[in-house]
Amino acid sequence: MNGNRVKGQKRKYPFLSLIMVGVVLCALLSQQTVHAYQEEEVAGGGIISGVMKFSGIVPSPKTHKVTMGSNPEFCQTIADNNGVIHIPEVRVSSKQRLADVIVFLQEVERGKPVPKEGPVVTVDRCQFAPRVIGAMDEQTLRIVMRDPILHQLRGWEMLDKGRLPLFHLPNLGEGKEATVPLKTRGSSIIKVECDQHRFMQGWLLLAANPYVTVSDDHGVFRLTDVPEGTHTVGAWHPVLGYQEAKVTLSSGRQETLALTFVSPLKP
């Protein structure tokens, strides 16, 4: 096993800790990257869509006190009247739909073109936007700085035992941009954070093909131009873990999928 890379298994995983997810994703992706993805015309491509659901008690947001070392004159714009920032790590809609789930297809080695542009994350008001990103292995991440204060940004490959440094951007000023190759050594899970502002955290999961997306604020996801056949759909949330399901897609058809993530909190 090699870090946290992703390929297909036939088991379904309910709630898993981040460490255990790392072990699972390692087994899943490591074999898939042996065969490079090939672009080709997808005749009769179909759609896999659906929703991510949530069951149980929604974990409370993480709280962080804005201190003198955290640029209170600027970052307090996202704090409450007591100078506390509340960061929801599990975002659930009024209909119990779960946002920020990275949904991807395993074992697809041929299919639609790889996007010419890689993902973009913006640093805006002491937060990463978006906070959760699905990308393809070896794409380029573009980081855009909008804040007028200093952020010392780092990216880490998250392993089942520890982490490896991926990038360090200590002096990215307002209006500036940087590009980072998403070429990792042993992990498909990347955590992005700021040395100075510990409440700033973002997550990426790298898939081995372009069939990857993130559930929106209503828990909805959609994968298009999918080759016909039986596919393993993986779904990963930074806090709630990993699940997968099989979907058989006929030429030109649409199949729907619903997965439910269970709260780690007991009633």
Describe it for me?
The protein has two helices and 20 strands. The protein has helices at residues 18-32, 72-75, and strands spanning 38-39, 46-55, 62-65, 84-87, 102-106, 110-111, 120-123, 128-129, 132-136, 140-145, 153-158, 163-169, 177-181, 189-194, 201-207, 212-214, 220-226, 229-237, 241-249, 254-262. The chain has a five-stranded mixed β-sheet. A four-stranded antiparallel β-sheet has the order 16-5-18-19, covered by helices on one side. Strands 8-7-10-13 form a four-stranded mixed β-sheet, with no helix packed on it. Mean pLDDT is 89; it is low at 1-17. A hairpin with a 4-residue loop joins β11 and β12 (163-169). By secondary structure, the protein is mainly beta.
Q: State the major sheet.
A: 5 strands, mixed
Q: State the assembly state of the protein chains.
A: single chain
Helix content: under 10%
Q: Strand order across the biggest sheet?
A: 9-15-14-11-12
Name the structural class.
Answer: mainly beta
Q: Roughly what is the average pLDDT, rounded to an integer?
A: 89
CATH class: Mainly Beta
CA-CA gap between termini: 36 Å
Low-confidence stretches: 1-17
Radius of gyration: 19 Å
The tally of strands reads 20
Record the SSE blueprint.
Layout: H1 18-32, E1 38-39, E2 46-55, E3 62-65, H2 72-75, E4 84-87, E5 102-106, E6 110-111, E7 120-123, E8 128-129, E9 132-136, E10 140-145, E11 153-158, E12 163-169, E13 177-181, E14 189-194, E15 201-207, E16 212-214, E17 220-226, E18 229-237, E19 241-249, E20 254-262
